[in-house]
Amino acid sequence: xxLGVIADDFTGAGDIANTLAKGLPGxxxxxxxxxxxxxxxxADRSVEAGVISLKTRSSPxxxxxxxxxxxxxxxxNQGCEQFVFKYCSTFDSTPEGNIGPVAExxxxxxxxxxxxxxxxxxTVGRTVHQGHLFVQDRLLSESxxxxxxxxxxxxxxxxxxxxxxxxxxxGLVNTEIVRSGSGAVRSALDAAAADGATMVICDASLDxxxxxxGRAAAGHRLITGGSGxxxxxxxxxxxxGKAAGAVTAFCGVDGPEAILAGSCSATTRHQxxxxxxGHPIMAxxxxxxxxxxxxxxxxxxxxxxxxxxxxxxxxxxxxxxxERLQKRYGREKVAETLDDLFARTxxxxxxxxxxxxxxxxxxTSGAVAQALDLDALSIGPEIDPGVPILIGGxxxxxxxxxxxxxxxxxFFAKALKQLQQGQMK
Length: 425
Ligand SMILES: Nc1ncnc2c1ncn2[C@@H]1O[C@H](COP(=O)(O)OP(=O)(O)O)[C@@H](O)[C@H]1O
Ligand SMILES: O=C(O)[C@@H](O)C(=O)COP(=O)(O)O
Hints:
The protein is an alpha/beta fold. The chain is built from 15 helices and 18 strands. Strands 9-10-5-11-4-1-3-2-16-17-18-15-12-14-13 form a 15-stranded mixed beta sheet, sandwiched between helices. InterPro entries: 4-carb_acid_sugar_kinase_N, 4-carb_acid_sugar_kinase_N_sf, NBD_C, NBD_C_sf, OtnK.
């Protein structure tokens, strides 16, 4: 294994696994496997990039640090020479963490400073200018992310936001330096390290900027960012002859299907509305769930009754209703109860024969994937930017784990079709 990725959630892990498997157009990518948690056994020798999915984005800081260091240890033992800490392209975190504390702990363990921190993912409209993060044409703090149920993003100056989470000062490499080339970026990172910075926010608004950052990162032990930061990394290993350029065959999975949505993002809520126009949907009664009165049996009956017509089960709601529920029951308690409900539902659905499953939401996907005990997933073709088909499990289950914010309006129906049909990539 050449490259090891520690991802702070499951949808983010799939996102970066997809980027590494694709590589740059015409060059091919790496042989990638996505692991669900830190594996207990050695990796297959064919794997060039191992992506460990953790569910640490919203966990207590100490847990996130401990689990990330355990992931680093395993990846080191597989022979990795470079490590990426993958977080969200909307920099999902709170003033306490977890991006800063995890990144500094990894940097300390690897003995490095002047580490790239770049959440940019231009394909889906996330760009960084003078250390400020934009979502399309809006500052992050003016996007729907300011209402996120767990990590409301209320400051677009991610250097300032990150500095609240870190021990060391946070540096900046701006667009002017990035556009001067990878040599200029390396010098700027060295200068920031000499000034005591562990984390250095790097501007990027085009894929070309990310390719430059990727080239600058050749030989660096640690890189941090969204999946965009991985765009240029396979090329470094291909150039040095350490990787061969992977082309993977993929064939679809035929079988019963279901869609589970726990994301409350504006994108997911719109996708649910689009899906509802032609397919059966079931809204979960959260008050009943909180009172322990929501029966998984009723959800299974709904899914079975609508088999073949893409049944969708969701908890997603608008910011006002989310706020009401969180005030009434507590933010953590609602998240924990819904995670548990989606986990039990997914397990029962798979036991009842479902073999194509689409899940919306990072926390929700984490709860579902952990419940299914899948260990490792192989990466299939991309459904929409940032969302690949994933295949795993003894019974061969096809999954689409969608970030709340990703995907076209008709994502749900399209994803189920692609999980079935498959295609060569
Ligand atoms: N109706 C609701 N009210 C309050 N919280 C909710 C509701 N539905 C889902 N949630 C919580 O919102 C969070 C959504 O996070 P996540 O699944 O990561 O989606 P995203 O990918 O949009 O961040 C989860 O913790 C989930 O339990
Ligand atoms: O970087 C991204 O935006 C995604 O890869 C990601 O991390 C997804 O997180 P959720 O939106 O919480 O699913």
